[in-house]
């Protein structure tokens, strides 16, 4: 990444950290958005704690989605699992089309309020991009390459680990990145069922008609999403280059 | 020796390979020729069990290949395919080292073997070892594919249309390289192609397949002079039979003692087809074929070549 591209990201990161660590410092910026002397900065909970809880939720859900979606993608591209492809696709598609809010509504009575229903919603919602990318990544590995691996005497697992997954990795990781970003945004709705997260700030703003709260909650979520997406892209490039997949 | 015994592969109701029996001599270069759908690739892939036969068996040096686990068997048999199938995320050296690595060779031995093979295929190790496949030309990729197939020093090398993706000029060179490699390592090569020209150029023995059945299996001369059926003679083609026959003989074998004063020289290894072409081009009646060390050159005349090209 060139310095031209890096500079705005560094600035964004510094601003974000500063805001999370010392939000009161930014009070004058948000004050014009409030009326009737409402507080310009959310103080019911530490913004830093909320951000950390928010990301924990996203990380847990996305790791879960990734494990399940990649495993499914691998399974249905094996000869023995090919017949499960339509079924898996249907399940994963339903997961994506079913609105996360509806998942929350269904899950909360079953598993109680808090983190659990939010995790379920994010997990289900995050499956599709990873599954579809894993599938197309694995299917794109050239038949001649797989045939050569077989011909060289690699077993099924060796072929998968040494040849197919590394070659499909760029696409799989792209799916994971996509799911992560979607989850960072979607996790805000978790606050409707009392999951700790940045959605709390936005909802407090909506309830008390405080635009400053809504904006600061939204900004923190948005900036985190962008920065994490970029960081994952950069990390991915390093890993893939080291493994020879991308140069 | 590779023995195919009543080998059959059936998909649904169709016999893709039907009751094929043949013996492949150790150290020979055997070419299986057929059009697409003739079952030739399936036949080849049953030797290393990429395809399991429906009936019949394959013996290598008397041992049934079904007695070994597939991957273990395949590590002992070289396999090179059209479009090379090199692993794009691995360097040339890593690609070549595939089977030795699977076999757990020590690192130093692998490195030495990779260098040896690169040199044998006229690729400078210093220049090529660390390159990735997409940085190579088509011809270089093909050679690395062959090097990878030969890496663990297999006695048998199976090749499925290995030259199919190469343009004509590189192809002839690649064919000659493989032939030279075969002599050097004394490998038994079983090669599948649709190209009769290639079969005649490379094969010590040629097997013709059609509709899953073995139509004829014999030396190139056999096929040319005694085709087993109409299909074989049609496949070989009648228009240039004489030239094909000439291409199977060398100048060394055809030369006679005689006056060679003032004649242009021709290499003893040159085939008579090329020798004839050269004579026509130069408008000469005869050429001089240099003898073995210490013996005088001998004479190869146009009349002699024409006589040898006569069929029946």
UniProtKB/TrEMBL annotation, chain A:
Please give one Pfam family short name: BPD_transp_1
Q: Provide the alphabetized UniProt keywords.
A: Membrane, Transmembrane, Transmembrane helix, Transport
Organism from which the protein derives: Alsobacter metallidurans
Establish whether keyword Transmembrane helix is in the entry.
yes
- Which GO annotations describe the biological process of this protein? transmembrane transport
Location within or outside the cell? Cell membrane
Tell me if Transmembrane helix is a UniProt keyword of this record.
yes
Classify the protein's membrane topology as the record does. Multi-pass membrane protein
**Domain of life of the source:** Bacteria
**Cellular component terms per the entry's GO annotation:** plasma membrane
Instruction: Please report the stretch or stretches of sequence annotated as the ABC transmembrane type-1 domain.
Output: 51-236
List where the protein spans the membrane.
50-77, 98-128, 213-232
Q: Which family does it belong to?
A: Belongs to the binding-protein-dependent transport system permease family.
Q: What is this protein called?
A: ABC transporter
UniProtKB/TrEMBL annotation, chain B:
The residues covered by the ABC transporter domain are 2-236
Please, which domain of life does this record's source organism belong to? Bacteria
| Pfam families documented for this protein | ABC_tran
The record's annotation in SMART domains points to:
AAA
UniProt keywords, alphabetically? ATP-binding, Nucleotide-binding, Transport
**Keyword Nucleotide-binding listed:** yes
**UniProt name for this protein:** ATP-binding protein
- Organism phylogeny: Bacteria, Pseudomonadati, Pseudomonadota, Alphaproteobacteria, Hyphomicrobiales
